């Protein structure tokens, strides 16, 4: 599986889309806002006046969450600017994701974004003074160079960096699993961790070239709380998928070998692992490193459906591995629903641990 050609969230604005099923990820962006605010304020205080501020959101996907972090960052800087009595600023925003991401939907949502910026900045006198904000879409993997040298002030990424650049090599023996579980051989854990380390090191190296002096990054990944490799958490969701696929094998709806060769290209790092890699790579200092938790079923919004939310992320990977004609996706997620319904504790066990790290470039 070539992840950069395959991975994307379900596009569009329909019932199964990421745009309509990413309330949980939206909550995570809001939960980490204080860390992002602190980092962007500290950046602003080190800038020369009237510089155009260049911000990149990496792994932006498509839908309302694409614009949320950027709107928050612009609002925070603009408040700082107003408090200091400085002149109005210009922003250049880069929205990045893999080439198969639904950039069309992003561009269609641009007028709404500009409108909300205008509303955000409506003064008491009713006059509009919105900052000029220029938005560019950037298609490509964040494990490669994406921007010219010294061109960015701030990089933000939420829920993108636990995705690996490839399924680790040498995990053919992870049979019966689709991810790391307590029954995975030790060599499989090692292969997953080493792939994560290689990818994260590349990410840090490339971003350190692209960020300017005093540049900052805030990254949130789906991770683990501690060194317990198999602590249940978001990985439990992949175990439920493995159970679902086994039931479909028993019904002879899919081939066992095909399931054995299906592995998720994702790794959930612990804060200690993140710290170890950042310190080893030596381009950034860590300002904040924090974990937070959110339960999968914590969104009590009636529009939120846990299975649809999982489907909007997992479906493109399943389709790419099994093929549309081989495996009926409605059938898969119907079965997944049954698996959850038969294990009332299943949903409670799905706890998402967020590892957030705020980094400053070593000049
Ligand atoms: C779960 S979505 C998160 C989207 C959004 N940031 C949010 O918080 O709702 C993860 C996104 O990261 C993107 N992604 C994963 N690996 C990537 C890579 N190597 N380069 C760029 N984007 C990547 C995926 O395509 C996906 O759109």
TrEMBL record:
SUPFAM superfamilies attached to this UniProt entry: S-adenosyl-L-methionine-dependent methyltransferases
Entry annotated with the keyword Transferase: yes
Record's protein name: Uncharacterized protein
Any coiled-coil regions, as ranges: none
Source organism (scientific name): Solanum pinnatisectum
Keywords: Magnesium, Metal-binding, Methyltransferase, Transferase
Sequence similarity: Belongs to the methyltransferase superfamily. Type-7 methyltransferase family.
Biological process, per Gene Ontology: methylation
One Gene Ontology term of the molecular function aspect: methyltransferase activity
Pfam families found in the cross-reference section: Methyltransf_7
Gene3D superfamilies recorded: Methyltransferase, alpha-helical capping domain (1.10.1200.270), Vaccinia Virus protein VP39 (3.40.50.150)
The keyword Transferase is assigned to this record: yes
């Amino acid at each position: 599986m070539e992840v950069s050609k395959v991975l994307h969230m379900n596009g569009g604005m329909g019932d199964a889309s990421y745009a309509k099923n990413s309330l949980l990820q939206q909550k995570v962006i809001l939960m980490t806002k204080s860390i992002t605010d602190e980092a962007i304020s500290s950046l602003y205080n080190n800038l020369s006046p009237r510089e155009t501020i260049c911000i990149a959101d990496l792994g932006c996907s498509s839908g309302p969450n694409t614009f949320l972090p950027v709107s928050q960052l612009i609002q925070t800087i603009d408040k700082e600017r107003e408090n200091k009595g400085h002149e109005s600023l210009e922003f250049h925003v880069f929205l990045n994701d893999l080439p198969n991401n639904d950039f069309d939907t992003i561009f269609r949502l641009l007028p709404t974004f500009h409108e909300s910026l205008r509303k955000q900045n409506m003064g008491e006198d009713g006059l509009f003074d919105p900052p000029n904000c220029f938005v560019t879409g950037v298609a490509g993997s964040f494990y490669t160079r994406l921007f010219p040298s010294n061109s960015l002030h701030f990089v933000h990424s939420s829920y993108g960096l636990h995705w690996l650049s490839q399924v680790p090599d040498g995990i053919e023996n992870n049979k019966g699993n689709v991810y790391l579980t307590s029954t995975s051989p030790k060599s499989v854990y090692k292969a997953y961790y080493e792939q994560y380390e290689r990818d994260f090191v590349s990410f840090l190296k490339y971003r350190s070239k692209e960020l300017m002096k005093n540049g900052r990054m805030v990254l949130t990944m789906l991770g683990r709380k501690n060194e317990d490799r198999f602590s249940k958490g978001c990985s439990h969701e992949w175990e439920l998928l493995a159970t679902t696929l086994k039931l479909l094998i028993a019904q002879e709806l899919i081939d066992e070998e095909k399931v054995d060769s299906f592995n998720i290209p994702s790794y959930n790092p612990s804060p200690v692992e993140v710290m170890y890699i950042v310190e080893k790579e030596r381009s950034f200092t860590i300002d904040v490193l924090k974990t937070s938790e959110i339960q999968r079923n914590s969104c009590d919004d009636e529009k939120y459906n846990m299975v649809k939310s999982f489907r909007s992320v997992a479906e493109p990977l399943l389709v790419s591995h099994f093929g549309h004609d081989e495996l009926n996706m409605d059938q898969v997620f119907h079965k997944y629903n049954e698996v959850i319904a038969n294990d009332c504790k299943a949903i409670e066990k799905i706890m998402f641990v967020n590892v957030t790290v705020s980094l400053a470039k070593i000049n």
